[in-house]
Amino acid sequence: MDDNTPSDLAELDAAPKKPRKGIYVLPNLFTLAALFGGFYAIVMAINGRFDLAAVGVFCAMVLDSLDGRVARMTNTQSAFGEQMDSLSDMVSFGAAPALIGYVWALKGLGRWGWIAAFVYCACAALRLARFNVNTAVVDKRYFQGLPSPAAAALVAGFVWVATDLGIVGTSMAWPMFVMCLFAGLTMVTNVPFYSFKDVHMKRSVPFVVIVLIAIGIAVINIDPPIVMFGIFVIYGLSGYWIYFWRKTKGIPTSVISTSTEEPEERGLHK
Questions:
Q1: Structure confidence by residue, pLDDT tens digits, 52-69
Q2: 209, exposed or middle or buried, with CB in 10 Å at 0-12, 13-18, 19+?
Q3: The whole model's pTM is what?
Q4: Which of 104, 97, 100, 233 is nearest to 167 (CA)?
Q5: Cβ neighbour number for residue 182 with a 10 Å cutoff
Q6: Longest dimension (CA), the chain
Q7: Crossing angle of helices 50-73/96-104, nearest 10°?
Q8: What ranges do the domains of the chain cover?
Q9: Are 192 and 142 in contact (CB under 8 A)?
Q10: Topology of 24-199+228-268 in CATH?
């Protein structure tokens, strides 16, 4: 005999159903576009179009910087989006720059060439994995180690500048070897790099800021390969400057959050 009364059945029918979990389209479109940029860079490198390969990496970098901001502005963050972003970054800023550097110059070094390319690729994977697990404890103002898009910009930018100047890749094998090792190993150091995450796009800014942005765009257009590569070289060295400046001032160099409210965090602040 059924014990459910008509009123009980009505309450069951009226009970709110859990919404089905879906995938947010807008931020993931930017992520897929960034992934395509990395894939495009790989294809262009295989075809010998190294200038276009470098452009593909830089386009992926711009798109990667937008997907997170779009997700936060539209309140469409999701665990799926985070995982998709990491996988896209591994292709665009890990595998693609390593392959571009290897095909363009490192191939002539034999095993030393593919070792340098692999070290860069492996460090990119380690950097992304560490970023994912340390998100909750790292000071948001800084990255722990060189971010993978900036490392990719160093490798791809080096190729772009040399190609634009008509330099043959085989003559730049050892400089590319050094660049891959520098960019790769800097990703897995504890050197702090300013993240620009405390810059809020929704806040009003003085008029002079807009003028400076316009001037910056004009300067980049003078010679995009050299100017953009120069910017990322300065950024790639800035972390070491911050590190040694903190050392001399007696400020902790670790970017792990300095909050000691959680007992397990206290041993991390060195």
A1: 999 999 999 999 988 777
A2: exposed
A3: 0.83
A4: 104
A5: 17
A6: 88
A7: 170
A8: 24-199+228-268
A9: yes
A10: Four Helix Bundle (Hemerythrin (Met), subunit A) (1.20.120)
